[in-house]
Structures are given as C-alpha cells and as structure tokens.
Amino acid sequence: MLIKTIFSGFGGQGVLSMGYIFAYAAMVDGKNTTYLPSYGAEVRGGTANCTVAISDEEIASPVASSPEFVVVMNNPSLFRFQNVVHSGGIMFLNSSMIEARPIRGDIELFEIPANDIAKGLGNEKVVNMVMLGFFIKKTGLVSRDGVEKALGDAFSLKGKAIVTLNKKAFMEGHTFD
Amino acid sequence: MRGNHIVAEAAIRAGCRFYFGYPITPQNEIPEYMAEALSKLKDGVFVQAESELAAINMVIGGSMAGARVMTSSSSPGISLKQEGISYLSALELPAVIVNMCRGGPGLGNIAPAQSDYFQATRGGGHGDYRTIVLAPSSCQELAKLTMEAFDLADIYRTPVIIFADGMLGQMMEPVEFPENTNPKSSPPKDWTLTGAKGRPGRAIRSLILDPVLEEEHNWKLMRKYERIQKKEVRYETFLLEDAKMVVVAFGTAARIARGAVKRVREQGLKVGLFRPVTLWPFPGTVLGELGKKVKLFFVFEMNMGQMVEDVRIALGGDGDIHFYGRPGGIVPTPLEVSRIISSQYLQKRL
After folding, report:
1. A2-174 topology per CATH
2. Closest partner residue to B256 among A20, A39, A61, by Cβ?
C-alpha cells in the first residue's frame, strides 16, 4: 500500500504543519513516510503545499504523480490540484473558504467548514488541525495515538496550552460529520 | 528529520566541531542547526562568515590545524568557494563541502536541480584536481554519506563534496544515524600546523614555483586519485537481473526514476535502475560491463545532460543511449518519466 496526499492552501493556514503532523504520526505508527514541502519565496498569504507519502514498503519517489488524496484549504488550491487527484481519489475541501466545487465526477468530495469550527474554539489558527482530524477520521491512514504523540512532540516548545488547543481542534475535526 | 538538519547532525556525530558558512537557500537549515548545536558543545565553533570566500578560507585554516571541518552552500555560493576548494586539493587538506544544488546558471532560482554535476565532478576550480563527490538520494543516505565523507576526506587528505539538491535538503523522512565510524580508520594527522614547540616547524603551501617540483606534486595527486578510483567507487542497482533496458540516474532524479521503474515493471517491461552513489569516482567500469549485456540505456537527470557524458564514455559505443532532462528546477513526476521510458522501450521492440 502506497498512499500519497497533497495538502494545499494559503501560507499561514498551517498547511505544512498539517502535512508534518500527519507524516510524523505515520512514523510513530511504524510506517515508511516522506514529507516534501513546497519551499520558495513563500510568505503569509502566498500559496504553500506539501506532499506526504506513506507506505508499508520503501517509498521510491516522494513526488506524487497523481495523489490518492488532496486537501484544499482555499480557492487557488482547488483549481490547482483538482485535476491532479487520482481517478477515484478523494478531495477534502475547506467549505469556509471555498465557494467553488470540483468539476470532476470521478472523485469523491468531503467538505468541512474548518475555519468556522476553529473560530468556535476561539482560535482560527487551529483550522489546520480541524481539517487534519477530519481527514484522518475519513481515511483512517494513521492512528489517533500517533497524531497525539506527533502533536505533543511538534508543539512541545510552544507550551502545554498550545498542545491542548491543537489536540482539541483535532478532535473537533475528528468527530465532525 | 529534515534533510538539511540530518546533514548537520551527521557531521557533528562524525566529530565535526568547526562549521563556517554563509546563508543561501535551500540549505539554510544546515547553518541554523549547526549554530545551535555547536554553541552547546564545549569545543564547537560556528562562524557565519562575511562571504562564501571567507568561509572556505576559514575551512582551510581549520583543516590545517587538524580539525574536522565543514561548510555548506548552494550553487552560486559553491561557485564562489571554488578557489578555496582548488587550494584544499593542492594543499591536500581534508574538508567536507555540501552543495544543495539549485536551478542555474547565475543566481537561477531556489528549486531543486542537478546542474552542478560538471562543476562537482571535474574539479570545479582551476588546476588539475578532482574531488570525491557523493550523491545521496534519501534522508537516510544523507546521514550515512555525510558521516563517511569525513572519513574519506581524512583517509585521502582531500576535499569531499556532498552533492544533493534543494529537494533532499527540504524533505523529511525518518532517519536512523549509523554508529559513529571508527576514527582509527583514518591515518594519524602528522602534518597539521599546531605550533612547532618541541618539534621542527612545518609548512603547508600550494605555491611551487619550480615546474619540475610542481609536476611531481601533480603526479602525486594523480596517483592518489587513481587509488580513490580503484577503491571508492559506489553504486546501487535495482531490478537489473533480467533488465533489457537500464535507467541511469543519481540523487533525487534516481528517486523519481525508481518510482518510474516500478510503474513500468507493473506493465511487464523489463527495466532496471543503475544509480551512481559516487559521481567521482564514477562507476564507469561496472556500467561498461553492463553495456556488454544490455542494449538500451536511458539517462535521466535534472539538468540538460551532464552525467550522460560519463555514461557515454563508460559504454564506449556499446548500446543506445537515450537522454531525458528537466533543467531549471523542475521536478518531474514518476508518471512523466515512466511514459518516456515505456515509449522508448516499446519503440525499440525490446
């Protein structure tokens, strides 16, 4: 099994952290994983994306030709990646930010108003973890324990409150239906 | 861990305590990590130099004093360091130089490319010399080869270049650091400049005005390069046993090519992969042997065709060579490469 996912959105939406936490959780679960960020002159408000591959076997290429899943956090990401998803693949869409919908009929679509949920938690910054919770609930690619460990390790320097808030946001997304 | 951080950590584990550099994307995480990690070590020295030229000359100084030294940069910065690398070679000083290659020429961009192959494998600076060039293709290999680079540099008293690219520097994979290699394998440094108290003075210099002596120095270096060519060739093969077509690629391109080979294997095409790990010494002899059995070679690089020249020399006229390159920082997908591989394979009716 080899699954590739592209996470995409505005710089500042936490797209890279989303991919990083996911890849870290896969590592905790004992899977092979690669995390490939887009890097460059990215700034807050610019576009950012990353590709995460997870597999039970060795991963040949960290670059995705046609990812099974794509997570889009804003409009430009939808337009950029809707034609890249593998036929039969799934798009996860942040309906708080995106009015358009993909024009393809051969992919499945899951929507979540991630920004609205994050606002409800009192901090819109955790919109990425809301989306990640939703993504992992639907795909079951990594364990919840893996994500909890990843969140704890990744945000440990930022203090307990931040870790707790992110875990809470993750759970909000995880239980969304 | 991120590729750049792995290089830095591996260097420290290999006993590197001196880092001199100047910032440039996409390798800034190396000095970032080194600054923090070396400042915590009692004997660690980190200097952000005023320029690349200054940094490489600090490397020369550190190496003369017997330390394990490293610098890192990306393409334009490596060009600036070439003068110093030529001096390191002439002076027979060990050092590790990391090039996280980006699109060029000129300032180019900051995207991953392999356009510095010629520069890395042909010496790069002025004069008759070669440097050992290691080309990792995964985060795990970044760790392994960085640590080995310090040993090779010490054993042969020569600069070693880690030739990777922005993608390897930026991507993350789980990594296990190898046990620290045995420092005893390196010969004792009985040539260092550490103050002549209680012993006769020594000098290390590259100015040899007498052509007879300079020629002898050149032959001496050449004999060393021949030893390296005999002993240090490294490469990796993948699904070569029954292959009718062989893809040759290194570094990041080899990673993409491996994905492409897996794809065309699913279609039943007998294609294998040959990946040089040392770009210099190039595994030409092994490739030449392969050319006696396999008739079609496909060279894929993220440049306009540089290693393909070494492949051509190695094959010496045996087999057909098809080249596919994407320069400028474009990273093609495995699907794109697999389509070209399969169309070549089918056209030749293998």
Report:
1. Pyruvate-ferredoxin Oxidoreductase; domain 3 (3.40.920)
2. A61
